[in-house]
Each structure stands twice: as C-alpha cells, then as structure tokens.
Amino acid sequence: IRRHSFHKGNQEERDTMQCSRCARAGMVEIRMNIAGEDVLFHSCGRCEARHWSSPDGPLSLDRVLELARRP
Description:
Layout: H1 11-15, E1 28-34, E2 37-43, E3 50-54, E4 57-59, H2 61-69
C-alpha cells in the first residue's frame, strides 16, 4: 500500500492511496483503536487485497487478532 502519514492527510490524499497489488487508487481505509493501539484496515475493491497497519508500519493479521483478544 502506498500511503501518506498515518494521522495526517486530507480526503484527496486518502482517495489517491493505491493498492500495491493492482495499483487501483481509492482503497477503502477503516481506522480503529484495538486494545489501545491505533490500527488501519485497508481493502481494495478491485483485487480484494487486504492489509493492516499501524503508525509503526505493517501489522500481520495474527498481531491484529492478538490485540483483539486482550481483555
């Protein structure tokens, strides 16, 4: 995923985010907080690539699930 800063960026910048698999612009981005950590879920409507990230970089699905299991 090619993207600008995690916390910055206007709507136009978010709309230009491109899928690293098929290069489609305008990926869906969902911001959330899981167990006190900011995370982003990215999804491509064309090729259905899905990725998780944090301010520190990419997150594996296993790491996201680990965070979700925290009490």
